[in-house]
Amino acid sequence: MKIKSANKHRSAGANSEAKLRSRMRRWEAGALKNSLARLPERRARFASDSGTEIKRLYTPLDLRKNDYLRDLGFPGEPPFTRGAQPTMYRGRFWTMRQYAGFGTARETNLRYRYLLKHGQTGLSVAFDLPTQIGYDSDHALAEGEVGKVGVAISTLQDAEELFRGIPLDKVSTSMTINSTAAVLLAMYIAVAEKQGVRTEALQGTIQNDILKEYAARGTYIYPPGASMRIITDIFDFCRRRLPRFNPISISGYHIREAGSSAVQEAAFTIANGIAYVEAALKAGMDVDEFASRLSFFFNAHNNFLEETAKFRAARRLWGRIMSERFRARDPKSCVLRFHAQTAGCTLTAQQPDNNIVRVAVQAMAAVMGGAQSLHTNSRDEALALPTEDSVRIALRTQQIIAHESGVADTVDPLAGSYAVEALTDEIEAGARKYLKKIDSMGGAVKAIEAGYMQAEIADSAYRHQLAVEKGGRVVVGVNRFETAEQPVNKVLRVSPALEREQRRKLAAFRKKRNSRKALEAVEKVRDAAAGTDNVMPPILEAVKAGATLGEISDALRQLFGEHREI
Amino acid sequence: MNSKKRKIRVLIAKPGLDGHDRGAKVVVRALRDAGMEVIYTGIRQTPEAIAGAAVQEGVDFVGLSCLSGAHNHLFTKVVKLLRAKGARGVTVFAGGIIPASDIPGLKKAGVKAIFPPGTPTRDIAQWLRAAAKHL
Amino acid sequence: MNSLIVRRILRGDVGAAARLMRDLDDELPSARSALKELYARAGRAHVVGITGSPGAGKSTLADKLVEAARKGGKSVGVVAVDPTSPFSGGAVLGDRIRMQRHTADPGVFIRSLAARGSLGGLSRSVFDTVTVLDAMGKDLIILETAGVGQDGVKVAGAAHTVLVVLSPGQGDDIQALKAGILEIGDIYVVNKCDRKDSEQLTRSLGLALEGTSPRDGWTPPIIKTAAVLGRGTRELVDVINEHRSTLVRAGAWERRSLNMARTAFMELLETGLRGFINEECERGKDCRKIFGDLAARKTDPYSAAKTTLRKLLSKSPPPPSFKKRGCPPFSKACPPVPRRRGRRGI
User: Among A79, A351, C54, C235, which one has the highest count of C-beta atoms within 10 angstroms of its own C-beta?
Assistant: First the structure.
């Protein structure tokens, strides 16, 4: 790696480069050749899961275009390759945040208290699919889905129960909610107000990333244009009222789960990020007013080196785009802060305990990559929702990395590794190529409308599948080292009785409330949405007036229409 | 009848609300590469829409994928609706996150095969080919 | 006397119709006799063909046309053709995804078809499927082609009204001129007109169409739509209906119907002949000898083809369904096929 300095040093550098090159050739013709003759390599070509070629050996020659101050710099300073913050984990560990939620609010509330008691430092709410897609628990399409992949929240009463006994000024709460984010955020604020907590004190994140829903995850409701408008309303509202809250978590996680490569994950996430910034600018906000609150969410997948490099590359790329393309002046606007979750798609149903080890390696990559918060998956998640025991092991995995491994004691410990730096450069360059292509299509929204991202992701997923099936790619316990085993029967089940209970509760709620007042409030939401007023204040009023999630979403559905799969 | 065999026609669908379509899309392509004609209905389909499409398309098989845990309710409903529409010849198979303990119940309800995560797609194609012989 | 399956189809039985379509696609001889009965009852539907390159938005447009037609009280059939993989013979039929919302509507019947061997994506079984839908009494039949390259052109002979769909950013401006689809459209649709570069496409399309002389009293208009946003689709439906009345007024409706019948007939004839020739060359020894002679430069392709054709035509080629007899016409073991039976397959 070159260090910017006086000319004579640079020519000295050129000299040593030539020397290195000639020594390497000698090594290749000698020691290497002999070794290969005795023992050929395991494969003709080595590549990561996502197809990035991995070289036999990385040397300073791979980094000759690299400039330390320009490309790496110092943690907490542009381009932020080495970390979002100067001291990183020496000051404070990442937030250990386990995504949880199932059944009714009451049950989930118990799981949260359990996790907080065991040392978890932030909440992460999983909502069930009807809640995510704007259907109340008693809607026909909710049948069979209530409380299954997360908690069912239809009313403010449900939200109150969810956070009962948890002081909202003390915890930070992340909510995986997208097309109905505005409603759930409003409910969160209303609960806080009832607890006597000022909105300014609220900390947390709503996912609110609709573009990746169209591209990979599928819980969209409205067409892209309408969704982008709601999102910018939320940005603006949070900027004014919830200054410590992240109004979006721009997510590559699900893009990767849907089968993308590491490069595509970084590229599409950042392309979506660009689209949100552009939408906010178009809505009249100044880049430095909101950019520092944008947060990201990435996947921590199997390939340790490539993943570490991916996080570093994404951070550098975003830093550069924010300062070069959007002319952000505040360095905080240029920092990519991210949550990571280990890769759910790598979990195997076979020999589920092996998943504990996979998760540990993936979590380590997230820490090496400088994650701000982390979720570690549980060993039994390829089978069903995790049991309490499994969740505890997953949390312990993070605690062991933090307290015992020592990797958290120095900042960005893999920096300077020839391999990691070369891969970091390669991923940034690969992502830039995609960004160029997406720009030429008119940006991320257009690329998604044209089905481009979806097709790219599906192609990668199929390539990966073929690689596994044709034997090249070993999955331990699945296509190699298989054992005859008993099927695991001890999995967490969500009782169908919960759905009935939730419906009953909802019916009672509807009976008790002042329906006329609630529906009038929904009308006001509709009016704001039809005009140009920010939709957040009327949504907040509506949930307080007893309007349900489904009623508010239906009003917007009628107005905006529904998006259909491309 | 021509000397060549009948083409196998399959409908792949995702009932319910979950949008995790990676597995479904991979199976769609794998079956195409196994020489079958595959109709994909996309995510978030009601059992009614799936059964209706299966009838209109005149398929031999309906493959259902669900990762949300709502499989017992949704798969059973699709099978029932197919029967009600007189599509008795249609064989239903499934995949997704299905706990082992749910499999006997689903089979009893008429889902002929369940392929858990990690199943090689060629196994699915092979099973379909074998099952098609009885059609 | 109508057979049971025909009676059920004429009563609107979707399952029976779907099964027959399948059997026709798979070339079951029993299905052909049912088709013959249905053929006599068909011929009333307005067939609208949609062609254009992949990704132009044909399926989304079809979806909107179905919606509009249903609002107008018409029953609709859709035949959506996707290409067959030349490697595996399989196909992904993904057009339905964009129209799936109409599945619950009993007035709509959507059928996906793989192009199978046919080059134009308009196989014999496409015509058969249209016939079944027509006999079922569908008022409007939308025929969406695979839209692969120049083969979409063939749709011109399979529909009363042909929509050519173009969209910006797909190199369509150049492709359109090359593929000859500028001669076949009754209506040109510039889809995705919300995109900035659509104006450019509309302009160059307008220039390219300039000087096109009216056909059947109709000058092809350019309609701008953004099907995903539902923009312009209502106008498009009006124009489609206008085209229909113009054809009827000009006495051209029958001419188009005749042309459609001709295309279907010729397609069948060609398929039959091609199958016959292929079989001949697979099984017969003569062809192998000819290949050898050609490779050795003992003869030339023109002379060889001429001799062979003359020889083939002196025999009566059996219709496609006769292939299963496994009797190459040149073989002495099988008696020559009588001429009048030869007509039956067509």
Answer: A79
Please say if the pLDDT value at position C344 is more than 50: no
Please report all neighbours of B, defined by 3+ CB atom pairs within 8 A. A, C
How far does the CA of residue B49 sit from the closest CA of chain C (Å)? 6
CATH topology of domain A68-465: TIM Barrel (3.20.20)
* Res. A565: pLDDT tops 90: no
Tell me which residues of chain A, numbers 135 to 194, contact chain B at a CB-CB cutoff of 8 Å.
135, 141-145, 148-149
Nearest residue to A543 (alpha-carbon basis) of A198, A232, A158: A158
Dihedral class, residue A240 (left if φ above 0, else alpha if ψ from -120 to 50, else beta):
alpha
The residue ranges of every structural domain in chain B are 9-132
Compute the average pLDDT of residues C203-229. 88
Instruction: List the 38-57 stretch of C: residues with Cβ below 8 A of B.
Output: none
Range scoring the smallest mean pLDDT among A340-349, A445-454, C328-337: C328-337
Q: Where are the domains of chain C?
A: 1-41, 44-251, 259-344
| Closest CA relative to residue A538, chosen from A551, A554, A521 | A521
Q: Chain C contacts of A446, Cβ < 8 Å?
A: 195
How confident is the model over C263-281, as pLDDT tens digits? Answer: 889 888 888 888 888 887 7
Confidence check: pLDDT of C345 > 50: no
- Name the superfamily (CATH) of residues C44-251: P-loop containing nucleotide triphosphate hydrolases (3.40.50.300)
Percent of chain C with pLDDT over 90: 51
- Establish whether the linkage from the previous residue to C328 is cis, with ω within 30° of 0: no
- Quick one: which of A537, B85, A283 has its CA closest to C17? B85
The answer to whether A395 and A100 are in contact (CB under 8 A) is: no
In chain C, which residues touch A (CB < 8 A)?
Answer: 55, 97-98, 101, 169, 195-196, 228-230
